[in-house]
Each structure stands twice: as C-alpha cells, then as structure tokens.
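Note to self: keep these together.
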Amino acid sequence: MDKADNVIRYTKVATVIFLVLVVVADVFGFSITNYITRVWADREDTFALITLSTVYYLGTVGAYVVLIAFYKLLNNMSKDIVFDKANTKLMKIIAIALALMGVDCMVGTIAWFGTIYVGIICFFMMLVLFCVRAVFEKAIEMKSELDLTI
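Structure:
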C-alpha cells in the first residue's frame, strides 16, 4: 500500500466524521441558530431567528451533497479511477453545491452579517474546484488523444 492510498483512506474516514458532525449539527440546529441569533448577531426578533435557521438548514443540505459527492470521488480514486468523466461530474456537483451554499450565506446577511464570511469561503472553494475540474477535463482529453495515437 502506497502513500496515496493511505491519504485517500484517511480522507474518506475524515469525510465520514464530517458527515456525522453535520448530522449532529442538524439535530442541535435550532439550539445553535437560537444561540447565534441571540448572542453573536445580538438580535431578539423572530425574523432573524427564522432567517438564520433557514440559512443554517439549507447550508447543511449543501454540506450533505458536498460530503457525499466527495466521498464518491474518493471512492473512485481508491479504485484507480482518476481521470474520468464521472469524477468531473462529481466535481461539478460539489462546485454547484458550494455556489448555492455561498448564495444561501449571502442571503443570511439580511439577519446577520457574519454569514458573509462563510459565503466568501464557499465561493472561493467553488473557484478552486472549478480550476481543478478544468485540469481534470484537460487531462482526460489528453489521455484520450494519447490512446488514439498508440
């Protein structure tokens, strides 16, 4: 077993741990958003609580999509399926989920400006992933051209 296989295995374990954390976050979501609304946002109104709760739960839906697609991507890589259209499709799904989570967080600024930071991180991660996806697509194209010349 080489170093890359170990990295993939540990990353899959970490992904499962993050998935469990998102489930726990969903279970305690209302308490968390209530705390964020009252303490961090320093708001007492129902509108802020409902807005931040909605943003929070929509964000966790996006987190499920990202983590499940990422796990599938890692699973493909552990099977030595790397430069493949299925992986670029998974990357596209992750990037779109990140974009929607970013928009979700930007909407959350209506109730609390602090959500803008998570939104910016989502947009940045989306841009990085689109760049990696473009590299993968180019590698797939080059690989298919190379296969035709042999």
